[in-house]
Amino acid sequence: MNQLPVVPSASSSKFGMVPNLQHNGIPQGMDLENWQQDPYLHWTFSHVADFLPTAKISRGDGPVAELPENFTDFTSVVVDSPEYGAPTSVGQIMDDTFTDGWAVMVDGELLTENYFGKADANMSHILMSVSKSLVGVVVGALVNQGKLDLSKTIEHYIPELKGCGYEGATIRHILDMRSGIQFSEEYLDPQAEVRLLEQVIGWAPRRDHSLPKTMYGFLASLKKDGEHGGPFRYRSCETDALGWLCEVVSGKKMPQLMSELLWSRIGAENDATIGIDKEGTGMFDGGINASLRDMIRFGSLFLEHGKSLTGEQVVSAGWVADTFAGGSTSRKSFKQSPDDNRMPGGMYRNQCWFPYEGNEVMLCLGIHGQMIYINRRANMVAAKLSSWPLPQNARMLFPTIQAFDAIAEAVGDSDSIPELPLDFAPLDQYTTSMPVIVPDAQVPATPVTPVAPVVPVTPAAPVTPAVPAAPQIPAETIASQGTVVAVDPDSGATTVDWGEGPTTYGGATQ
């Protein structure tokens, strides 16, 4: 896109300064330098395809997943938010956090759907890093097809990354943002890699002409500043590497692949789009645009064991269980993170956030206030599209989470709580048609010869006390990827050696 003329002009609105539109429909004064800044973002975030190159992620011609409406007013629900210093309300938080639209679904019914300004149900809004969670599900679908082994290194699939900072990082490391790659996520620093990447893909004026000309060239130029498999560090480039990986193993460009594996199967109502560079490569880490209702439909996958509301198995129940369980070191690596995440006891798994110690609440998060909130105990999915003036703002993020927590508490425990991970089924519940989920521990690339069906083994020494139960993983996962050391016949506590020493799980393996 050519740089637009700068003609400063704006008019006030509820959200501050919303720019006037020129005769061509583009806001006066907007250009590549400022389209993500206030006041222009109040228009640009819902009009990305009008000024940046995008590719369509088709919804296909399948049925739309209906969202039965049973509207309830949650705006007066009281929220105890430390950021406010006094009790406030859901409605006040939504007003204060530059909301473009928000919706809540409980037990399959759409209870709330609100839009602000000129937004409506067909609005396609940029998801920013919520895009990462969508890419994570595509990775899961490819694992389920047997096309990806999470224990293999990235250069095994992408030889172009041999010799750069990514060499030696496993797919699991990258999926959970635990590679040692050097990448700054300081959005307000114009020299941070996250901002340099925008120059590469054409989301910002190219000021540094020494930068690679393509997304993939940029990834191959990155250096390493830590050991792979170390603490969690949030880095957008990890998702871009995953997008490249998906294209390599599938032989398809990501817009087509995402349509086939995800968007055409969730019962989406609208096509989605993704921002692309001049080579047609998608901005996988934050460039997807979609409607609010379709965000709800995507989020429902995590309540329905990977099934869409139309009944299609988009990703395996095992992948969803693994996402909620995390790996044996997921929470430890999150705690050790140098990032100021302000989520004590939380974790990051499969491109999704877990803000609390338990596994009931999951988040898909994007800068400037994009969010999908999933609460398994309330059987609830909520979504919010926003236009925060600044990329990151804890005083807006955490009250929003607290508002959805308050709604979940108000509706109470669902009568149809999903069985995973809150209730646990026998180890053999999963069919062998759903491929293995590989834990984050390093395991041999060649699977171990399957063993006979597991039978209780009397331990030679007292069994380690059982830890809290975690979601189940298929029995064939244990057989092919680890070794069962012992199974307590009374408690069901299972001790498994994944290749780095035994770990005991409370009646389930993670």
Automatic annotation (TrEMBL):
SUPFAM superfamilies: beta-lactamase/transpeptidase-like (SSF56601)
Entries under InterPro entries matching the protein: Beta-lactam-related, Beta-lactam/transpept-like, Diverse_Enzym_Activities
Domain Beta-lactamase-related: 101-394
Transmembrane segments: none
Pfam family, one: Beta-lactamase
UniProt protein name: Beta-lactamase-related domain-containing protein
Organism: Neomicrococcus lactis
